[in-house]
Every structure is written in structure tokens, then in C-alpha cells.
Amino acid sequence: MGQKTHPRGFRLGVIQTWDSQWFAAPKDYANLVYEDKLIRDFIKGKLFNAGISKIEIWRKAQLIQVNIHSVRPGIVVGKGGQGLETLKNQVTELINRKDIIVQINVIEVAKADLDAQLTAEAIAQQLERRVAFRKAMKQAMQRAMRSGAKGVKVMVSGRLGGNDIARTEWLREGAIPLHTLRADIDYGLATAKTIFGIIGVKTWIYKGILAPGEVAQRNVKLVSNLDGEEDDTQQRRRRKKRGEQ
Fold first, then answer.
1. Do the first three CATH levels of 17-108 and 112-209 match, i.e. the same topology?
2. pLDDT tens digits, residue range 42-63?
3. Structural Rg of the chain based on CA atoms
4. Cα 195 to the chain's mean position, in Å?
């Protein structure tokens, strides 16, 4: 039986980077890893309807910067930024460290159909609504291919269709070169809680081969944060607008 390797971890340091970026002394390392998990689980559970793809955590001295990649950033930001302010206060209370400043950025996902995590969660939600699993898989694959994917693979495992014996079913369209390090492959994992039990959903989305030394591009549109700072895209737009005037 073949050994399975996480597509993201396999490419770390080659074309992918880490979701948590910080340095710590050995005695503090385990506590900070656990703190990162607490922050991610809390935000994911509180804002599940916002379609969160991933949560990046960067630590710099006394600052924790949390980047939330969401397909519906308006739900995270809230009216007049109240949602971000409330979330910031809740995360600060969660970590319970008075010497730490928390900054939260919201990054909009450009194409949700090309995000493997969002695709897996969409299939899981359909399974919970008792949609036929093959129909949900095929529709998700078709949307991804129309959005520009070079290949898609979807796998579901569990008591599919309410059968007494659990099994695994998968569909694939296009190419999925899992052994190629320069292949830009996004991977997502989600679980559907049905009346028959848990059904696991895995998705692989292949976006193309990268040139040597090239890093996978982020599937994002814009960034907004509590401090009113602008990202590079917003700054370029502002400079371009000034030039036209």
C-alpha cells in the first residue's frame, strides 16, 4: 500500500511557505504552537459562514498578526469594522497575554472555486443537506475546471448514501502530478456530519507547473485591517489614480 504525503507539506520550502511564521526559544515553542491552534480553531468556529480558506499567523516581537483569507470578507469586517474590533478583543482575551498586541487583516479570496479548502467545505455542506455525493463531487469539479484549474481530484469516505458499510469513492478530471515538486497543487480537507456518521472530503486542485525558483501565487484580491493600512495592490491603485488626476 502506498504511503500518503500531504501535498502542502511536501512542497514547503520549494514553492509553498508556512501558515505560521515566527521564531521562538525551545522552551516556548510548544506553547506558541498550541496558541496558534487555539486562535485558528476559535476564528474558524466563530466565522465558519464567512468561507475561511486559511488563517496565517505571523509573530514579530510583541505583535501577533493574523491574516484571515475569506471569500466573504464583509462578514468578518462587519458594519463599520465592528466585527474586526470585536474579533480582535476576543482573540486578545483568548490568548490572555497583556503584553501582546493583536492585529487582524482580512484578505479576500479571488476565486473560491480554485481554493481546495473552500471546495471541500462546499461539498461537505451539500452532503449534510443530503445531496447525492457523486452529484456534489461532479459539480465542484466542473466549477474548478471552468475557473482555470488544470486538474481536480475529489475523494469522499464514509457511509456514503447511508450504506451500512463505509467505503471510499473518488473522481478525477485532468492531471494531478502529486510527485512533481514544482506542481502548484492546493489541498483541502473537510468533514460532513450526517445522520449516518462522519464523511470525510478531500480535494486536490492542480493549477500548473511553476518555473524554477518561482513561488506559488496567493489566490487573493485585497487586504483590509483595523489600523487602516493598505496593501501593495491598494497602494498601486491610489498612485495610479493620482497620476490620472
1. no
2. 999 999 889 999 999 999 988 9
3. 20
4. 27
pLDDT exceeds 60 at position 149? yes
Extents of the domains making up the chain: 17-108, 112-209
Of residues 91, 65, 113, 115, the one with CA closest to residue 231: 65
Quote the CATH superfamily of domain 17-108.
K homology (KH) domain (3.30.300.20)
Decide: 106 and 84 in contact? Cβ < 8 Å. yes
pTM: 0.84
Measure the CA dihedral 59/65/66/71, to 10°.
Answer: -130
Q: Given strand 151-158, what is the order of strands in its sheet?
A: 167-174, 151-158, 197-209, 183-194
User: Which set of grid coordinates corresponds to residue 117?
Assistant: 479548502
Cβ pair 134, 143 in contact under 8 A: no
Pick 112-209's CATH classification: 3.30.200.20, 2.40.260.10, 3.30.420.40, 3.30.1140.32.
Answer: 3.30.1140.32
Q: How far apart are CA 151 and CA 7, in angstroms?
A: 14
At residue 78, the pLDDT reads 86
Q: How many angstroms separate the Cα of 181 from the Cα of each of 21, 70, 185?
A: 22, 27, 9
What is the DSSP secondary-structure string of 174-223? E---TT-TTEEEEEEEEEEEETTEEEEEEEEEEEEEPPTT--PPP-EEEE
Closest by CA to 63, choosing from 92, 28, 93, is 92
Q: Give CA angle at 58 (55, 62), nearest 5°.
A: 135
